[in-house]
What we know:
By secondary structure, this protein is mainly alpha-helical. The chain has two domains: 111-435, no CATH class; 443-541, no CATH class. It has helices at 3-31, 43-58, 81-93, 97-110, 112-119, 126-129, 131-138, 140-146, 151-168, 171-185, 189-206, 215-231, 233-239, 248-259, 266-269, 272-287, 290-295, 313-338, 346-360, 363-366, 378-396, 408-435, 449-453, 456-460, 473-480, 485-491, and strands spanning 464-467, 493-494, 505-508, 511-514, 526-531, 536-541. Strand 3 and strand 4 (511-514) form a beta hairpin. Helix 1 runs antiparallel to helix 4, helix 2 (43-58) packs across helix 25 (473-480) and helix 5 packs antiparallel against helix 7. The protein is globular and about 85 Å long. The termini are far apart. 41% of the residues are buried.
Amino acid sequence: MGYSQAKTKPVMIKLKLILLAIFILALSIRLVGLGSIPASLNRDEAALGYNAYLLLSTGQDEWGKSWPIFLQSFGDYKLPGYVMALLPLIHFFGLQDWVVRFPSALSGSLLILPVYFFATNFIKRKWLALTVPYLIAISPVFIFFSRVGFEANVALLLFMTSLWLLVGGRWKRDLAALVLLFLASITYNTPLFLLPFVAVFIAGMRGFKNPRKYILPVLGMTLLFVGMMAVLLPVTAQKGSITLLSDETTWMNWVTFRQSLSDWQKPLLGSRYLYVATQMLSNLWNSFSYSFLVEKGGQHPWHTLPSFGHVLLSVYVLSLFGILVSIKRTFLIGFLFFNRRIASLKKIELEFWLLFLTLASLVPAIITVDAPHATRSLLFFVLLVIWTVIGLERILDLKILTLKPLNTTYIQVVLLSLFIISTSLFSFTYVQAYFSWSKQEQASWQPGLSQALRDPAIVSADKVAILDPEGYAYILVAWYAQLDPKYFLETIIHQQANAFGFHYGEQVGKFHFIVNQNDRIPTETATIEWEEAEKKWVVSSY
């Protein structure tokens, strides 16, 4: 064994030990109290869990379809990946809340590995790249999404692993990456919509001038994209109703805007597609906003802890710094190249394609009406973390650090230590708030239905009315009452689809789901109702 190999071996051992320590940290934060915080499953989690239970017991979903390609559920057409992952867990551990969330928690913990290896392609100092998995482990968005049964979180792990393999440039890795991209695409929609951009990213990273280097993965992704879009057409058609091009409110706003223009302005500024493009640019800008990323985290209560954003302040500042410096370098070196002052663009190629992927990662979010949207932007959050460490590396490279007699390495260690300590303290504040998140503060999750269903008045009643204005409580009742699958399939009654294609539950077993008290029939001798003022489910008997 040569000297360099002997020197490399202990370094690799240290690297593996550090990654193992970060993984254990991430896993601990994600698994502790997994079934109790949040205090209740949301309707999507319950739908995933109970449909997996139905498939495991009867081979049918809640609509009585045998092993469907996608699950209609209440009309949102869930992809099969997450449900398939739940089958063995429910078989061995039963209908428990933590079981539904476990695939997401495990994926959020394992995510540190492919993200680290992917990041080493863009960060010069390999030891500094270890900051990336640490930030993934402690960032609010990755903690929160890993502790809820989000299909997007599992798909993110598969997607990032495929990106890491694809950057490697070997045909065996390419084949493995294509398999993972397929699995990601049958788990959540976003990876499928990103495939064309990933194909361009990989071709650019490997060099457009030599097609032999990228023809296999690009051709594979093209076939996968076309094939999956054809198979999942009913799913994408339903999801299309929330895009800016098909949303009725957006269309009406465009009509109002066009009417406000003068006759000569309408041909220039009144185009519907131009209006939608401006909305997309606004959504893109808002996706980078302080309010969305640091302060509030968007409007959806299932995506973030109240009064907290998605990323830490230091991550936000340094990631924007890294991106802005990279944009400046890209334009400067590009200008010098085109003016023949330098002979190559290699100094900016990697950063340029990372910038491209960063913007592309937001496409699935910014084309929808509820942008900025965290679930469709998880890849973006990963890339922000990588840009954070790139920004940190830029600071360590500043000329002021080379002043004598100060030791450059010493200053770099001090600065890195200060960064890690500050981010750790901010993260500790978030984690502390998360685990002290009381049931009273979780009103949007409506916890306590399980206890209400076990109330003696409910258990003894022949018929029960449940006030359910939203129409999704039927699947939560099926999960928390642990209804027998055959009984469920024999008694379930879905309402007709509404304008958005959603089917609300009307009846399952002895439970009748009504909009208000006037809809209760006399034979229903007990009711369950969510009292917003008291923040709890209230049982009444008649």
